[in-house]
Structure formats: structure tokens, C-alpha cells
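Example 3.2
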Amino acid sequence: MITHYVKASPTTSMVDDSDNFMTQLLWGDPVHLEADWDSDSTWANVRVRGSIGWVRKNALRKATSSFKGLLEFYIIDVGQGDGVLVHTPDDKWHLIDAGVPNEKQMTKKGAANFLRWKFYEDLRMGKIELENLIMSHPDMDHYGGMLDLLGERLYDGRQFKVSVNNFYHGGMGRFYGTNPLGKTKSGTVAPLPNAAFGISRNDKFIVELLDDIDSFRTPARTFTTKFAELAALVADKCNSAARISQQDKFLPGYDDTQKVAIHLLGPIIEQFGTNIGLRKLGRGDRWESKTRNGHSVVLRFDYGDARILMTGDLNDESQRLLLSYFDKSEFAVDVAKGCHHGSDDVNMEFLKAMQPRATALSSGDNESYAHPRPAILGASAKYGRESESTRGKVLPPLVYSTELARSVALAYPSTVKLDPDFSGPQDERWYSAKTTLIKSKNTRYRPLKTTPIAIDLIYGLVNVRTDGKKILCATMKESGNSFDCRMFKAGVEVPTT
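Structure, written as C-alpha cells:
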């Protein structure tokens, strides 16, 4: 049971029985008491992130029914893709996307691994409990990790339990044959609120849209293999499913009467005649990917003075579509998850409208897209805003990348354990740190004892936490037990249109 939380200092230290530094704890970290609260001691014996140590009592605040924590975002290092775990102050958890399946990752550690660790070891809940699971759009690098999560099994065979109340999505499916994103119709929409961004009133629209859980359980047409696997898991593991768009205005249960309002700004559902649909984006042989990416679910979290924007894989055309329907002020935020992993297929007017104080980019390694693009790293800083730290210092616009924040722990082997069940040739079984050679792609060999091996992954996790007045952004340093932190005052300067 969570008994305390770390107070609003950016970090505090946890030490062992000999007063040696163990790790840094972040503002809002949940704390479990390991021993009764000793009123005569300045220290509390606690368990945090699965480790036991000592923390000064004056760094903790008691968990009460009126205080369940902060608005927190864990931008997970899922390799190439997106995965964001959100904790709202009503003590509910939400997952936006989950990256690619573990089997497709170099590290074999994805969103499901992080959630299992978070709920089982850090929160000690014994089960992953999500109020909302949100698929921003049906690309494998966003929904693939949901196959691991809803399948309740990690790549290494470890199992866990998961419960999901609601599954939300933008309406597009993945179908075999013609109309792979859904059947289309041509039509003309009403005059756009802002016609300055070159979006035509006449176009083709996807009208075959998924909606409730029955559209996943018994689809009208055959889904592609992996999407069919997702659909079956959604039908089996989620209590309900629903299509969401800007027409809903808010994520259900989080309107502007709540402590945290979650605005729905995309995808843009448009009406033509008696029909509604998602506009076909892009042209030529790339229209499918442009349309899938462009119609991402877009969420803006408002909490006190703080605004945080989740953008999915928006591209230039979809950003212009959003600006055609919304005033620029709707996209002005303190923190933004950068669009499409730092792709340069963006509209600069949209970046200017966001003007974030901090931008977090989720990008992968060993991928062919070269994300994040240098131009977008530069533009995110150029069009971002300065912020004022809680100590009065002016901070430049901040740019984070899960890939740049990641590192690995390297080590050299000293001994090798034989596999007693190995049934191959004897000369392959008898491994020795002194004699075994490793073959590389260029057919050269090197001794195992001089070959560094990655023994652990240090996640490139980007932490964002706010109480509505100040915002903490933190990434773990390569040492693996301390953080690089920036804490600044929240507040959006709404741009003029």
C-alpha cells in the first residue's frame, strides 16, 4: 500500500543502512513504509522502485484521500514508436499507445515490460489496472505493444494480469483487400472555420469506421493478421470500446468540470450531407500511411495552469486540417510530445502555435527513418518558449528524446555457464571465456573475454509531472541512479491568430 509521496523538491536521496547513496527519488514518487513510523527518528525505512532504503521524513508527505499524487506522464522508451503511461490525480492510469511488439525490438523490452515493473514492483499492486487504453492510430509502432500487454506475457515468458476498462481509438481499422483503411465516399463539407491553410472542402472520406467493442469482436470485413489479433484481445480483455474524435470535445470522464480536463482535438471527423468520415490524406502510393498517421488521436491535458499535448503521428496535412477547425490557441502548451517521432513532415505554423516550453520526442534505434530529424530538433527549440525555473532562473526551450536519453550497461565476461540441456555439436557446447570467439558480419573473430556485452538497458524514459503550478521534466543519467531534472513554472501565453 502506498503510504507517502515524495514532496515537491525535484529530487531527494535514498540511502542504505550504512548511509551510502542508493538512488534519487523524484517529486511524486510513491513510497511504501517498510517499518513503523518512528517519531524519534529523522529517517523513514521505505521501499521505492523495488528497493529498500532510508529517506528523510521531511522529504515525504502522507498519502490521503484528498491527495493521490500529481498529473504524471511516463514517455516510455519503446524503441521506434510511441508509448505514454499517464497517471491522473484521481489515481487512475491511462496508456496511450504501446510501441512495437517486443519480438520486433532489439532490446526485447517495451511498454509491457515497463508497465509490469511499474505496477508490480513500484506500485506493488499485483496487477496492471488501466482505466483507459488509447490507440492513437492503427500503425504497428503504436498498437503492436498492446499485443504483449493484453496478451499478458513478456518476450521472456514472464506473465502478469491486466484489466482495462475502456479502449478508445480514432475509428480506422486495417482490412484485407481494397479500401484497406475502410470504404470511402466523396463529398463536400461546410465552409471551414479557418480557410487559410489550403484544405479543400471537396475530398474523399473514410466512412467505414470502427466504433464499439462489437466492431472489433465481429468486424464487417476481415482484418489484417496483426490487427485481427489486436481486435480479438480488445474484445476479450477490455470492458468497452469506443471511437473518439474532436466531436466529443473531451475524453469521457474528464471534461472541464473535473480537476484534469482532457480535451479531444483530433482526429477531425467531418460531415458531408448525411455522412461522417475521416478525410483521405496524402496522394500517390503514400496516402495510406499519411492518412493513418494524420488522423491520430490528439489529447490536451489541462491541469491548473499547466497544459500538456499528446500529438501521435500528426503530419503537415493533418496539422493544417487541425488549424482549419481550431483556433491556434487550442494548441498552445507547456509540454508537447513531438509529432511523429521527430519527422520533418510538419507544418511550421503548427509548431509555432504549440510554442512548448519542453518537447519530448519518442524515437527508435536501428531504424531507417533517421528520427528525430535535426531540423525538427532545431525548430522545436526555436519555436519553443523560455520558462522560469522555480528558483527564478530563465531556462531555454527544452528538447528531450527517448533515444538520446537511453544507454546500456556494458561489461566483459569473466566466466561462462554451460547449458546442460544443449544438444548440438560438442565443439559448440564447450564455451570458455578464454577460448570462445565471436563471429561478426565481416567474418572477423574476436575473443569473448575482450568483447563488451550489453548486460542491461537503461531506459530513455522521459518523466513529466505537474501539480498545475509547476512542471518537472526529468531523465535518468547514464549512471542509472540519478536524474537530470528541470522544474519550471506552468502557464501558457496564448498566441494571437
